[in-house]
Amino acid sequence: MPPDLRDGRIVIIGASLAGLRAAETLREEGFAGSLTVIGEERRPPYDRPPLSKQVLLGRMAADLTGLPQRREVDADWKLGVRATGLDLLGKRVLLGDGAEVPFDRVLIATGTRARPWPNSAEAALDGVFSLRTSEDAARLAKRLDAGPRRVLVIGAGFTGSEVASACRERGLEVTVAERGPAPLVGALGGTLGELAARLQRAHGVDLRCGVTVTALEGDGRLTGARFSDGSRVDADVAVVALGAVRETDWLAECGLAAGPRGVACDAGCRAFTMYGIVTDDVFVAGDVARFPHPLFEYQLLSLEHWGNAVSQAEVAAHNMVNPESRRMPHLAVPAFWSSQFGLNIKSVGVPTFSDQVVIAQGSLREARLVAVYGYRGRVTAAVSVNRAKWLEHYERLIETAARFPPEPGAADQPETLGPVPSDVPDPKLLSHGPTVALTGYLPDRRLTRVRDT
Questions:
Q1: pLDDT-derived band at 221, boundaries 50, 70, 90
Q2: pTM for the full predicted model
Q3: Residues 6+ apart with CB under 8 A from 413
Q4: Structural domains of the chain, with CATH
């Protein structure tokens, strides 16, 4: 490693999973310089997936979800302070407390925040919750412990569905409102969305699809909600699960290609400027990153997945302290999992990057299956329901751009013989964002103003 890369000042902005794994990797790669990690939350890095599962079920305290450190990172941890700006010319990070932190190289790993309820007065009602931080989970779990009469979940993506599942397991009455045609449809398409809808109703969920919540009602304390179809429901707890907002507001006017869909970067995690020029000293990793992937026609992917945060952080850290000839691309196949209503759902690839789906193994009726997704005649994703051991096989098919539909194997015969449309909806039709977004580059509006001058 050249001396100038081994030393110097590296700042990591974001003290969650990606930030921690990046810090560890930097030290493992031999970085001996100054390392600063900045995080808005006061807590050291912790694991978020348990918040909507074990914590809401009362099986784990929210303050016991800390992430184990694989090694000492010898860093200056600045927790409980928000980054408010990035000065690329002066090479400094601006903080909310007025301090400035200089850097030679910087990693942006600020992740996402929960999308808030749009009416601030209604959002302030006692009984209205979101779920993103450990404090959110602790407050919501305490309220569920008190036994509310009914919980309203707004949005039926993975977080909303997991919250509904936990509430039903507790024996609570639950209403789920979803603007789209079915739960999980934004991530898995219509076929598995129909399965999720059937499953929720079988577990006693009052599932209402194709409607929106037009108002949360109450006088200081939540009492109910009105829907777009004119109906109303009484509820003393509402969980707003409208998806995530990428933490890029603080990067406004800094000159990077940063916007609502994240910070654009190359496959080596180097951030782009607003003009599409790759930077040499600004890197990005985790949920906030938008990166190209050759398996998906080099469109820019934004992923809200645990595994992606780890692998991308490790690639970014490696590339920050290695010369061009030794840098690596981030080409891992996306993967995620969810546990809800007694089902173990796992996915590899990008189901939303598809035009057809086939039940390659198992049965929708028995809710034990592997659904394989294809786009333009090649395999792009696979989702297992209570049948995860086969996913490694389909991951290889994705990596090799195998023909879709896949050849039948030695497993049991599927209940359907041919592919059907995957019915992936336009995200505008959902009340929550998909956990995977594929987009071309969205020019920043400032670029137009610069051209005009």
A1: very high
A2: 0.92
A3: none
A4: 3-47+67-113+245-326 (3.50.50.60), 115-243 (3.50.50.60), 335-426 (3.30.390.30)
